[in-house]
Design goal:
The complex is a heterodimer.
Chain A lengths: L2 H30 L7 H15 L7 E7 L4 E7 L4
Antiparallel strand pairs in A: 1-2
Chain B lengths: L2 E6 L7 H14 L4 E5 L7 H5 L9 H5 L5 H4 L1 E2 L6 E4 L12 H12 L4 E5 L6 H8 L3 E6 L3 H17 L1 H4 L6 E9 L1 H5 L6 H8 L3 E6 L2 H9 L10 H13 L16 H6 L3
Parallel strand pairs in B: 1-5, 1-6, 2-4, 2-5, 6-7, 7-8
Antiparallel strand pairs in B: 3-4
Helix pairs in contact in B: 1-12
The chains are: A alpha+beta, B alpha/beta.
Chain lengths: 83, 270
């Protein structure tokens, strides 16, 4: 038995599994935006600017998502408005 | 008709050029006429790794611009039969590569060669896009490390959307995972992502695992592809990967840590 490893194991074991967890989240997010058209990020910024003209909101209070079904695509826009 | 293989990764420094040199040389050693093309315009390095830096006269961009013929620019490897290198330009900018220009060169090579290995630059700019655009197969070089794995996934997304095969709705580019700088000992103690972890995340078939090896630096110091070092694990692992690329079933090696002696086990010395 690796005497020193025995004590080391607990903390070091976490680093590879932490890496895996973090990657799974990042990659899943990356893949949802994989099939989106190139104009989407720019459009999202523009939509935010328009809303900001009227309501005080932050960037992260708007989410834009494009879902494609068989026949049509649905653009989903979620805006969290401050109270 | 030649098969076009891109060696790509997104992230820099993971071993694309080392891999291009090794796989290109391996294919030639197996009797296939092979050309390795350096797409890293402005930062050419394949010539150094292949040990032909003093024989560069014309380059990729010279051929695209019609300043030299392909025959003049191709460097015949001195060690390995059937192997040719097309160096990148050191002076031009990467905009010099165009779809038309690259397409024409690949068409011309396709008549004469069995394999064309495209050594991609890092990043997702023009040079990288051109390297993968015409590919039939892609070797995605990845280190067991977070930024490399994430960038590999990005490159896979680009292969799915920006390659010619994707644009024309043809059969998709065949993707292969090549895990490099792998250290089984660190995997064992939970300090490094395992082969299974990376396969899990990227979800593409595994072409090979190249163990972390001093032989790689030694080989590049000497301008000799590491695959020619039959003594080194890394060289052997690349040879296995080439066999798999040619459709052979070869067991993966070097995935387990070497058994330690009594002293190092007790003391935890690595």
């Amino acid at each position: 038995m690796r005497l020193l490893d025995y004590f080391r194991k607990d903390t070091s074991q976490q680093s590879a599994s932490m890496a895996k967890e973090r990657l799974q989240i990042v990659v899943a997010h990356q893949r949802t935006s994989r099939n989106q058209p190139d104009f989407l990020p720019e459009m999202q910024r523009e939509i935010i600017r328009v809303i900001q003209k009227y309501v005080k909101i932050e960037q992260d209070q708007v989410s834009v998502q494009l879902d494609s079904n068989d026949a049509c695509s649905v653009l989903e826009l979620n805006v969290t408005l401050p109270q | 008709m030649a098969k076009i293989i891109v060696v790509t990764s997104g992230k820099g420094g993971v071993g694309k050029t080392t891999t291009s040199a090794a796989i290109g040389t391996g294919l030639a050693l197996r009797g296939h006429k092979t050309a390795i093309l350096d797409f890293d315009v402005g930062l050419r390095n394949l010539d150094l790794v292949m040990g032909c830096e003093r024989r560069v006269v014309y380059d990729f961009v010279n051929v695209i611009n019609g300043e030299a013929s392909l025959k003049q620019a191709l460097i015949k490897d001195k060690r390995t039969e059937n192997l040719f290198i097309l160096p990148a330009s050191q002076t031009r900018d990467k905009e010099a590569l165009t779809v038309e220009g690259v397409g024409k060169i690949l068409d011309e090579l396709a008549n004469d060669f069995d394999f064309i290995v495209c050594d991609s630059p890092a990043g997702i700019e023009k040079g990288a896009l051109m390297a993968l655009y015409f590919a039939d197969e892609a070797v995605v070089v990845t280190n067991p490390e977070v930024s490399s794995v994430r960038d590999s996934d990005r490159i896979l997304g680009i292969l799915h959307s920006k390659s010619q095969r994707a644009e024309q709705g043809r059969e998709p580019v065949r993707e292969h995972l090549l895990l490099t700088r792998y250290d089984p000992q660190r995997v064992n103690i939970g300090e490094m992502l395992s082969v299974a972890d990376v396969e899990d995340i990227l979800a593409i078939p595994l072409l090979g695992v190249i163990p972390e090896s001093e032989a790689v630096l030694k080989a590049s110091n000497q301008g000799q592809p590491v695959i020619l070092d039959g003594q080194a694990k890394a060289g052997q692992a690349y040879m296995d990967a080439v066999a798999r690329l040619l459709g052979e079933k070869v067991e993966h090696r070097f995935l387990e840590a070497k058994k330690k002696g009594f002293f190092s086990r007790v003391m935890g010395v690595r």
